[in-house]
Design brief:
The complex is a heterodimer. Helices cover 61% and strands 6% of the residues of chain A. Classes of the chains: A mainly alpha, B mainly alpha.
Chain lengths: 165, 151
């Protein structure tokens, strides 16, 4: 069999697109085991398929995952796990590098939501602490000021009494 | 009492999440192109991910390209909703409007590629529909991929 001719025929493309007949599929799978060139060409095409899909990717709304979880009605305690070994993604350009673990999803309603990076947590903490410090300072200076005003008032009264005597 | 799906997810509770993180965007983009309706596409995405736990062993493992398998599963699922797809008139120029490859293809290449990629038609079906030999359909598919490789 002429392997190169077979690769050039377009059968591999039809297969990866799911357009090959059952007979062609069986034939291809048997050739794939026998000929490494066919195996390599097929893997390259599969990567091309991923590339095409990456170009059209649309990031789903953050609420979508919650919908999936809700519909499965899964209530489990998550055990330690080994990540799935998913082939073919590592060497490709990442169509989106949003690491969902780095984000807090705040869902207010189905249609409105905000997505905040976890780094903001420390900013929020700092703002919260500073606001408490400012509040304490404001109360302290208010009391100090009130006390000083009272003292001035007392002194003025005293002064007036001295003057009348 | 737990459903079969719940049990399957409990076996590998993070597997589905990992598949979601890696492929949901690609899948949503693909489904959106097929159904041409973002709301409906999201609904299909949710349904497909509900079906995945029962097919987890088909999607992962040595020698399996997860994305291609996931796309096959999606095509199969969308085939079940054929009524919806049949209502969408095929116009290859509307597919992948933002897809740079399509603009590089000839009308024939685009027609064959879009019919196969988005409508899940086989080479045999297309050869009958377009009154061309199966070899010429495969050749057009090959040419379309050559264009994609050049990107």
């Amino acid at each position: 069999m002429n392997v190169q001719q077979y690769i050039e025929s377009g059968v591999l493309e039809a297969y990866v697109l799911g357009a090959a007949s059952e007979a062609e599929t069986q034939e291809l799978l048997s050739y794939k085991k026998r000929y490494p060139q066919i195996q390599d060409a097929l893997e390259e095409l599969e990567r091309d398929m991923e590339y095409i899909a990456e170009q059209m990717a649309i990031i789903p709304p953050p609420i979508t995952w919650s919908k999936i979880e809700a519909s499965i009605n899964e209530i489990t305690i998550t055990p330690d796990y080994e990540p799935l070994r998913l082939r073919g993604r590592e060497e490709r350009s990442d169509y989106y590098r949003i690491n969902r673990e780095n984000y807090i999803e705040v869902a207010e309603a189905e249609s409105t939501y905000i997505r905040v990076h976890k780094n903001w947590k420390w900013v929020f903490v700092a703002v919260f602490v500073l606001s408490k410090i400012f509040l304490a300072c404001a109360i302290y200076f208010y009391l100090e000021n009130r006390q000083a005003q009272q003292q001035i008032l007392d002194l003025k009264t005293e002064l007036k009494l001295h003057q009348t005597h | 009492m737990k459903t079969e799906r719940q049990i399957l997810i409990q076996c590998d509770p993070n597997g589905l999440n990992e598949l979601y993180e890696k492929y949901s965007g690609m899948l949503l983009g693909y489904i959106s192109e097929v159904v041409k309706d973002s709301k409906l596409a999201e609904q299909h995405l949710v349904s497909i991910y509900n079906h995945i736990p029962g097919h987890m062993n088909e999607l992962t493992g040595d020698g399996i390209n997860t994305w291609c398998q996931l796309q096959r599963l999606t095509k199969k699922y969308l085939g079940l909703c054929e009524g919806e797809l049949n209502n969408i008139k095929l116009d290859s120029s509307t597919y992948g409007a933002c897809n740079k490859f399509h603009n590089l293809m000839t009308q024939e290449q685009r027609e064959v590629f879009c019919n196969v990629y988005y409508r899940g038609k086989t080479v045999f079906e297309l050869s009958k529909e377009l009154k061309r030999s199966e070899d010429s359909i495969r050749a057009l598919l090959k040419e379309a991929f050559v264009i994609i490789k050049k990107r």
